[in-house]
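Notes from the 1:1 (GR / supervisor)

We went over the backlog. Supervisor wanted to see one worked example end to end before approving the batch request, so GR pasted a single chain during the call. The sequence is below; no edits were made to it. Supervisor asked that the structure be written out right there so they could see what the output format looks like.
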Amino acid sequence: MDTSLITMPVTFKVGDIMSEDEFFRFCQMNDTLNLERDKNGNIIFMSPTGSSTGSFTTDILLEVGVWLSSHKIAGKLFDSSTGFTLPNGAVRSPDISWVPREIWDSLSKKDRDRFAPVCPNFIIEVRSKSDSLRYLQDKMQEYIDNGCQLAWLIDHFKEQVFIYSQGTEVRTIRSLDIQLTGDPVFPGFILDLSAIEKS
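Structure output shown during the call:
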């Protein structure tokens, strides 16, 4: 079977047959799988990313983390292994995300230990070759609709970036030879994608 022709993710249309707690337990029992759930309760099987895209994403995560630490920005930074329950009921695991400290501290320990019921203020998704661009674009809009303030979709495969923010049209940049600014969530933060791509 030629798996190179399979576009990820794969959605199993099961409907809303599991509660939030049941889906959390299902994910723990199948912890070798990358799972999400859409707002209708359907289970989404995600593909592990390729090594090149994984390294690229990790470099971005490190850049964001170092800047947040050096500027003493209070909040929690998360990688792709973290799930969040959005206000619309979907469970998503962004590649990189950040939640302000005051929001994180307002959550109960039980909520923190599961898929926290919050939409991160800042999100980055990195597209690899097997990912459906349309699916990721819909996902980015879902983040904005559920309260995310700034979201970047970085298409590592076709070398383009889509910038989403509250109250503005989606901005498309057809190059990775750029610097992205963190306004309004992280004023002063600049992510030099060209330097990361060449590293």
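Supervisor's comment: The chain has one domain: 48-198.
Batch request approved.
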